[in-house]
Amino acid sequence: MMYTENPVAEASTMLAVVVTGPGEHSLERVPRPSPEPDEALVAVSHVALCGTDLRLLRGTLHDAEYPVIPGHEWAGVVLAAPSRPDLVGQAVVGHNFKSCGACGWCERGAANLCPTLDEVGFTLPGAFAEAFCLPVQNLRPLPAGLSGAEGCLLEPLCVAIHAAERAGEVTGRTVGVIGAGTVGLLVAQLAVAGGATSVTVADPAAQRRGIAAELGLGAVADLTVWHDDPREVVVDATGVAGVFPAGLVATAQGGRYVLVGYSGEDSTPFEPSLVMLRELTVVGSLSGVGRLDRALEVVADGSVRLGPLLSDALPLADYRAVLDIPADSAPLRNIFSVNQEPSQ
Ligand SMILES: [Zn+2]
Ligand SMILES: [Zn+2]
User: Fold this and answer.
1) I need a labelling partner for 163 at 20 to 30 A (CA). Which of 22, 189, 239, 262 fits?
2) Which residues form the Alcohol dehydrogenase-like C-terminal domain (predicted)?
């Protein structure tokens, strides 16, 4: 596939969303980055805005560093790659992370916990821009048959894959996923593929339960229906602190509770003795470092479908319009088109 006549390829400046402080951001013209010898300059075709990005824009994200160009869920096309000119024109997705590779966490395969981990869109310039740079070794071809918008969902799929790993064995077990957002619906599909006896999502938004049904998943509006019939594995993908107490009650004796949603600095009272009396295992799951190749596999083998999770793409210039949409009427992912889509 070829990608030609992109004005960004020759330009010295580009459009980008720049966050300069909590709640302070604008679409502005900034210098276009130049790739280092081992990097590629990627023209962004699509970028998605997730809950973490909303927190970054609103100023409610832990340890945010400013100024920053957000955007870590993206697909694009290689515009330049000094060490790999053969890649120019290739549609790509990529690993967003740079870990040190030498600390104890990196050595034990948990680079997501590396203390000096850098991530595109947080500590490195992200994809809410016409272009950004990434090491060539981080790139993977966008699979044929996947649109740029679908490519954006590979990043939350990495997050879901790690959460499914943290959930452990699900074969022959009942699984409840709280929150039918993008990550929740991806985790639920992975649980089905993993051999769970039943997989049900809980979400008050009828539109989201409809998407769950389209994916062949069971869906309930209120997780408290599980209080009388607890699930053996519960994954909390809501990012709402107040869900935790009811989620624990919904978890069966000997069961496992996985927290993958990020709830900022909110807190909630809960009953610790439930964890003790039921011998629950409560685990956290942070990001999806190193899971991109697995994500490409589960899409290719049909275990996970991305299409039903998509909504129409908006132009990048409209990014502010989505900031005030209430969560229960927002699409699963707000997707923006940046440069034209490559022809396949
Ligand atoms: Zn995200
Ligand atoms: Zn490290």
Assistant:
1) 22
2) 183-298
